[in-house]
Design brief:
328 residues; alpha+beta; five-stranded mixed beta sheet; 10 helices; 37% helix; 29% strand
Length: 328
Protein backbone atom coordinates (compact mmCIF):
# COMPACT_ATOMS: atom_id res chain seq x y z
CA UNK A 1 0.00 0.00 0.00
CA UNK A 2 1.30 3.41 -0.91
CA UNK A 3 1.39 6.07 1.81
CA UNK A 4 -1.01 4.16 4.00
CA UNK A 5 -1.75 6.02 7.21
CA UNK A 6 -4.02 4.93 10.06
CA UNK A 7 -5.61 7.66 12.12
CA UNK A 8 -7.96 7.46 15.11
CA UNK A 9 -10.06 10.49 16.04
CA UNK A 10 -12.02 11.34 19.16
CA UNK A 11 -14.21 14.14 17.82
CA UNK A 12 -15.43 15.65 21.06
CA UNK A 13 -17.75 18.54 21.79
CA UNK A 14 -15.01 20.29 23.80
CA UNK A 15 -11.79 18.74 22.54
CA UNK A 16 -10.61 16.75 19.57
CA UNK A 17 -7.82 14.20 19.94
CA UNK A 18 -6.00 12.51 17.10
CA UNK A 19 -4.03 9.27 17.24
CA UNK A 20 -1.65 8.35 14.43
CA UNK A 21 -0.54 4.72 14.21
CA UNK A 22 3.12 4.45 15.08
CA UNK A 23 3.19 7.92 16.69
CA UNK A 24 0.54 7.77 19.41
CA UNK A 25 -1.63 10.78 20.29
CA UNK A 26 -0.45 13.69 18.17
CA UNK A 27 -3.20 16.28 18.65
CA UNK A 28 -5.12 17.39 21.72
CA UNK A 29 -6.91 20.57 20.75
CA UNK A 30 -10.15 22.34 21.62
CA UNK A 31 -12.97 21.67 19.11
CA UNK A 32 -13.15 25.31 18.07
CA UNK A 33 -12.97 26.89 14.63
CA UNK A 34 -12.46 30.60 13.93
CA UNK A 35 -14.25 31.79 10.78
CA UNK A 36 -14.03 35.07 8.93
CA UNK A 37 -17.54 36.17 7.97
CA UNK A 38 -16.35 38.74 5.40
CA UNK A 39 -16.03 35.96 2.86
CA UNK A 40 -18.85 33.98 1.35
CA UNK A 41 -18.84 31.14 2.24
CA UNK A 42 -17.18 32.08 5.55
CA UNK A 43 -13.49 31.17 5.57
CA UNK A 44 -11.86 29.17 8.35
CA UNK A 45 -8.87 31.15 9.64
CA UNK A 46 -7.81 28.99 12.60
CA UNK A 47 -8.66 25.76 14.41
CA UNK A 48 -8.02 24.37 17.88
CA UNK A 49 -6.15 26.32 20.57
CA UNK A 50 -5.38 29.15 18.20
CA UNK A 51 -9.11 29.56 17.49
CA UNK A 52 -10.09 29.17 21.17
CA UNK A 53 -7.77 32.00 22.15
CA UNK A 54 -9.68 34.23 19.75
CA UNK A 55 -13.00 33.70 21.58
CA UNK A 56 -14.23 36.96 22.98
CA UNK A 57 -11.29 38.97 21.69
CA UNK A 58 -11.56 39.05 17.91
CA UNK A 59 -12.49 41.77 15.42
CA UNK A 60 -16.19 41.72 14.55
CA UNK A 61 -15.78 39.82 11.30
CA UNK A 62 -14.08 36.81 12.94
CA UNK A 63 -16.25 34.55 15.06
CA UNK A 64 -15.22 31.48 16.97
CA UNK A 65 -17.54 28.53 16.39
CA UNK A 66 -17.82 25.28 18.31
CA UNK A 67 -18.88 22.99 15.46
CA UNK A 68 -20.21 20.25 17.75
CA UNK A 69 -23.14 20.44 20.13
CA UNK A 70 -23.94 17.64 22.60
CA UNK A 71 -21.60 15.24 20.84
CA UNK A 72 -23.10 15.74 17.36
CA UNK A 73 -22.14 17.90 14.40
CA UNK A 74 -23.97 21.22 14.51
CA UNK A 75 -21.94 22.91 11.79
CA UNK A 76 -20.95 20.52 9.02
CA UNK A 77 -18.57 22.75 7.03
CA UNK A 78 -16.66 23.90 10.10
CA UNK A 79 -16.30 20.30 11.35
CA UNK A 80 -15.09 19.04 7.98
CA UNK A 81 -12.60 21.92 7.72
CA UNK A 82 -11.29 21.29 11.24
CA UNK A 83 -10.82 17.57 10.48
CA UNK A 84 -9.19 18.40 7.16
CA UNK A 85 -6.65 20.68 8.84
CA UNK A 86 -5.81 18.01 11.44
CA UNK A 87 -5.62 15.11 8.98
CA UNK A 88 -3.47 17.11 6.54
CA UNK A 89 -0.84 17.62 9.21
CA UNK A 90 -0.02 13.91 8.93
CA UNK A 91 -1.11 12.85 5.49
CA UNK A 92 0.15 13.93 2.12
CA UNK A 93 -2.61 15.18 -0.14
CA UNK A 94 -1.43 12.77 -2.81
CA UNK A 95 -4.23 10.98 -4.68
CA UNK A 96 -2.46 7.68 -3.94
CA UNK A 97 -2.50 8.06 -0.18
CA UNK A 98 -4.71 5.47 1.44
CA UNK A 99 -5.75 6.99 4.74
CA UNK A 100 -7.85 4.92 7.11
CA UNK A 101 -9.67 6.88 9.76
CA UNK A 102 -11.53 5.45 12.72
CA UNK A 103 -13.71 8.04 14.43
CA UNK A 104 -15.94 7.94 17.51
CA UNK A 105 -19.65 8.69 17.66
CA UNK A 106 -21.90 8.86 20.76
CA UNK A 107 -23.93 5.68 21.24
CA UNK A 108 -27.22 7.56 20.85
CA UNK A 109 -26.66 9.17 17.45
CA UNK A 110 -29.18 8.78 14.64
CA UNK A 111 -28.35 7.37 11.20
CA UNK A 112 -28.37 10.93 9.82
CA UNK A 113 -25.87 12.06 12.46
CA UNK A 114 -23.65 9.01 11.82
CA UNK A 115 -23.67 9.81 8.12
CA UNK A 116 -22.73 13.42 8.83
CA UNK A 117 -19.64 12.25 10.74
CA UNK A 118 -18.77 9.78 7.98
CA UNK A 119 -19.16 12.43 5.27
CA UNK A 120 -17.14 15.01 7.21
CA UNK A 121 -14.21 12.59 7.52
CA UNK A 122 -14.54 11.58 3.87
CA UNK A 123 -14.53 15.18 2.71
CA UNK A 124 -11.48 15.82 4.89
CA UNK A 125 -9.56 13.39 2.68
CA UNK A 126 -9.86 9.94 4.23
CA UNK A 127 -10.07 6.99 1.85
CA UNK A 128 -11.56 4.51 4.35
CA UNK A 129 -13.71 5.54 7.29
CA UNK A 130 -14.99 3.39 10.13
CA UNK A 131 -17.12 4.52 13.06
CA UNK A 132 -16.85 3.19 16.60
CA UNK A 133 -19.22 3.93 19.46
CA UNK A 134 -17.67 6.19 22.06
CA UNK A 135 -18.29 4.07 25.18
CA UNK A 136 -16.77 1.06 23.39
CA UNK A 137 -13.64 3.04 22.49
CA UNK A 138 -13.50 4.40 26.07
CA UNK A 139 -13.74 0.89 27.54
CA UNK A 140 -10.97 -0.40 25.25
CA UNK A 141 -8.77 2.63 25.97
CA UNK A 142 -9.33 2.22 29.72
CA UNK A 143 -7.93 -1.31 29.44
CA UNK A 144 -11.17 -3.19 30.13
CA UNK A 145 -11.24 -6.65 28.59
CA UNK A 146 -14.20 -6.01 26.29
CA UNK A 147 -13.91 -9.32 24.39
CA UNK A 148 -14.51 -11.14 27.65
CA UNK A 149 -17.92 -12.75 28.36
CA UNK A 150 -17.79 -11.01 31.76
CA UNK A 151 -19.58 -7.67 31.75
CA UNK A 152 -17.79 -4.37 32.36
CA UNK A 153 -19.39 -0.98 32.85
CA UNK A 154 -17.93 2.27 31.61
CA UNK A 155 -19.18 5.80 32.23
CA UNK A 156 -17.60 8.25 29.79
CA UNK A 157 -18.30 11.90 30.65
CA UNK A 158 -17.12 14.22 27.90
CA UNK A 159 -17.90 17.84 27.14
CA UNK A 160 -21.27 17.31 25.49
CA UNK A 161 -22.55 13.90 26.51
CA UNK A 162 -22.23 11.35 29.28
CA UNK A 163 -22.28 7.81 27.92
CA UNK A 164 -23.04 4.87 30.17
CA UNK A 165 -22.54 1.39 28.73
CA UNK A 166 -22.20 -2.23 29.71
CA UNK A 167 -19.87 -4.13 27.37
CA UNK A 168 -19.30 -7.87 27.01
CA UNK A 169 -18.12 -10.17 24.17
CA UNK A 170 -16.88 -7.21 22.14
CA UNK A 171 -20.25 -5.50 22.01
CA UNK A 172 -22.36 -2.96 23.87
CA UNK A 173 -25.05 -4.89 25.75
CA UNK A 174 -26.97 -1.88 27.02
CA UNK A 175 -26.21 1.82 26.97
CA UNK A 176 -27.60 5.21 27.77
CA UNK A 177 -26.54 8.64 26.73
CA UNK A 178 -27.47 11.91 28.40
CA UNK A 179 -26.68 15.39 27.14
CA UNK A 180 -25.27 16.34 30.52
CA UNK A 181 -21.51 16.59 30.79
CA UNK A 182 -18.63 19.03 31.23
CA UNK A 183 -20.33 21.88 29.36
CA UNK A 184 -23.52 21.42 31.39
CA UNK A 185 -21.45 21.65 34.57
CA UNK A 186 -20.09 25.02 33.40
CA UNK A 187 -23.56 26.24 32.44
CA UNK A 188 -24.95 25.15 35.80
CA UNK A 189 -22.27 27.20 37.57
CA UNK A 190 -23.05 30.27 35.40
CA UNK A 191 -26.79 29.96 36.10
CA UNK A 192 -26.33 29.42 39.82
CA UNK A 193 -24.11 32.51 40.20
CA UNK A 194 -26.51 34.57 38.11
CA UNK A 195 -29.53 33.53 40.17
CA UNK A 196 -27.96 33.59 43.61
CA UNK A 197 -25.53 36.49 43.31
CA UNK A 198 -26.94 38.55 40.42
CA UNK A 199 -23.56 38.21 38.77
CA UNK A 200 -22.87 37.34 35.16
CA UNK A 201 -19.69 35.35 34.51
CA UNK A 202 -18.29 33.89 31.30
CA UNK A 203 -17.74 30.28 30.24
CA UNK A 204 -14.04 30.50 30.91
CA UNK A 205 -14.54 31.70 34.50
CA UNK A 206 -17.09 28.95 35.09
CA UNK A 207 -14.61 26.34 33.87
CA UNK A 208 -11.92 27.79 36.17
CA UNK A 209 -14.28 27.60 39.15
CA UNK A 210 -15.13 23.99 38.30
CA UNK A 211 -11.46 23.01 38.03
CA UNK A 212 -10.34 24.90 41.12
CA UNK A 213 -13.06 24.13 43.66
CA UNK A 214 -15.69 22.03 41.86
CA UNK A 215 -16.64 18.70 43.40
CA UNK A 216 -19.36 16.06 43.48
CA UNK A 217 -18.65 15.09 47.08
CA UNK A 218 -17.19 16.80 50.13
CA UNK A 219 -13.40 16.76 50.11
CA UNK A 220 -10.59 17.82 52.40
CA UNK A 221 -9.26 21.33 52.09
CA UNK A 222 -12.44 22.82 50.66
CA UNK A 223 -12.31 26.55 50.26
CA UNK A 224 -13.66 29.55 48.45
CA UNK A 225 -12.35 31.60 45.56
CA UNK A 226 -13.06 35.10 44.43
CA UNK A 227 -14.94 35.45 41.15
CA UNK A 228 -15.14 38.50 38.92
CA UNK A 229 -18.16 39.24 36.80
CA UNK A 230 -20.69 41.86 35.84
CA UNK A 231 -23.24 42.90 38.42
CA UNK A 232 -26.68 42.48 36.81
CA UNK A 233 -28.17 45.19 39.03
CA UNK A 234 -26.00 48.14 38.00
CA UNK A 235 -23.98 46.65 35.12
CA UNK A 236 -20.66 47.33 36.84
CA UNK A 237 -17.81 44.83 37.41
CA UNK A 238 -17.97 43.14 40.80
CA UNK A 239 -16.11 40.49 42.84
CA UNK A 240 -17.78 37.84 44.97
CA UNK A 241 -16.57 34.86 46.98
CA UNK A 242 -17.90 31.45 46.00
CA UNK A 243 -17.38 28.32 48.10
CA UNK A 244 -16.89 24.64 47.24
CA UNK A 245 -20.22 24.02 48.89
CA UNK A 246 -22.03 26.42 46.56
CA UNK A 247 -20.40 24.90 43.48
CA UNK A 248 -21.55 21.47 44.62
CA UNK A 249 -25.07 22.85 45.03
CA UNK A 250 -24.84 24.28 41.48
CA UNK A 251 -23.81 20.89 40.04
CA UNK A 252 -26.38 18.86 41.94
CA UNK A 253 -29.05 18.59 39.21
CA UNK A 254 -26.55 17.67 36.48
CA UNK A 255 -24.98 14.99 38.65
CA UNK A 256 -28.40 13.58 39.55
CA UNK A 257 -29.14 13.11 35.84
CA UNK A 258 -25.87 11.22 35.35
CA UNK A 259 -26.64 9.02 38.38
CA UNK A 260 -30.11 8.31 36.93
CA UNK A 261 -28.55 7.23 33.63
CA UNK A 262 -26.22 4.84 35.49
CA UNK A 263 -29.14 3.48 37.52
CA UNK A 264 -31.29 2.92 34.40
CA UNK A 265 -28.44 1.17 32.60
CA UNK A 266 -27.91 -1.14 35.58
CA UNK A 267 -31.64 -1.88 35.68
CA UNK A 268 -31.56 -2.85 31.99
CA UNK A 269 -28.54 -5.12 32.35
CA UNK A 270 -29.09 -8.91 32.21
CA UNK A 271 -28.72 -10.38 35.75
CA UNK A 272 -25.60 -12.49 35.01
CA UNK A 273 -23.78 -9.37 33.80
CA UNK A 274 -25.03 -7.34 36.78
CA UNK A 275 -23.28 -9.83 39.02
CA UNK A 276 -20.04 -9.27 37.04
CA UNK A 277 -20.34 -5.50 37.42
CA UNK A 278 -20.85 -5.77 41.17
CA UNK A 279 -17.48 -7.58 41.24
CA UNK A 280 -15.56 -5.61 38.63
CA UNK A 281 -17.06 -2.21 39.39
CA UNK A 282 -17.62 0.85 37.22
CA UNK A 283 -14.83 2.61 35.30
CA UNK A 284 -15.00 6.37 34.76
CA UNK A 285 -13.45 7.97 31.67
CA UNK A 286 -13.60 11.37 29.95
CA UNK A 287 -12.88 14.85 31.30
CA UNK A 288 -15.84 14.68 33.66
CA UNK A 289 -14.18 11.77 35.47
CA UNK A 290 -11.73 14.35 36.82
CA UNK A 291 -14.43 16.14 38.83
CA UNK A 292 -13.34 15.71 42.45
CA UNK A 293 -15.28 13.09 44.36
CA UNK A 294 -17.42 11.93 41.45
CA UNK A 295 -16.18 8.36 41.97
CA UNK A 296 -17.14 8.61 45.67
CA UNK A 297 -20.61 9.92 44.86
CA UNK A 298 -21.35 7.14 42.33
CA UNK A 299 -19.94 4.50 44.68
CA UNK A 300 -22.14 5.74 47.53
CA UNK A 301 -25.31 5.88 45.38
CA UNK A 302 -24.85 2.60 43.45
CA UNK A 303 -23.04 0.61 46.15
CA UNK A 304 -20.58 -0.63 43.52
CA UNK A 305 -16.81 0.05 43.48
CA UNK A 306 -15.81 2.86 41.10
CA UNK A 307 -12.39 3.50 39.58
CA UNK A 308 -11.20 6.42 37.50
CA UNK A 309 -9.25 5.27 34.41
CA UNK A 310 -5.52 6.16 34.29
CA UNK A 311 -5.70 8.82 31.58
CA UNK A 312 -9.43 9.54 31.52
CA UNK A 313 -9.12 12.27 28.88
CA UNK A 314 -7.29 10.04 26.42
CA UNK A 315 -9.23 6.76 26.84
CA UNK A 316 -11.51 7.24 23.84
CA UNK A 317 -8.76 8.12 21.38
CA UNK A 318 -6.45 5.44 22.84
CA UNK A 319 -9.29 2.98 22.22
CA UNK A 320 -9.40 3.90 18.52
CA UNK A 321 -5.62 3.47 18.40
CA UNK A 322 -5.78 -0.01 19.93
CA UNK A 323 -8.48 -1.01 17.42
CA UNK A 324 -6.37 0.26 14.51
CA UNK A 325 -3.34 -1.69 15.74
CA UNK A 326 -5.48 -4.84 15.84
CA UNK A 327 -7.05 -4.59 12.41
CA UNK A 328 -4.25 -4.30 9.93
Amino acid sequence: MLFSQDIGIDLGTSNTRVFVKGKGIVIREPSVVAVDQRFSPARVVAVGSEAKNMIGRTPGSITAVRPLRDGVIANFDATAEMLRKYIRRFVSASPFSKTRVMICVPSCVTEVERKAVYDAVKSAGARYVSLIEQPMAAAIGAGLSVENPRGSMVVDIGGGTAEVAVVALGDIVTSRSVKIAGDSFDEAIINYIRKKHNLLIGERSAEDIKLQIGSAYEYEGEGAISVKGRNLVDGLPKDIEISSDEVREALKDSLTQILDAIRTTLENTPPELSADIIDSGITLTGGGALLRGLDKLIEKEMKIPVTVADNPLDCVVEGTGICLEKHH
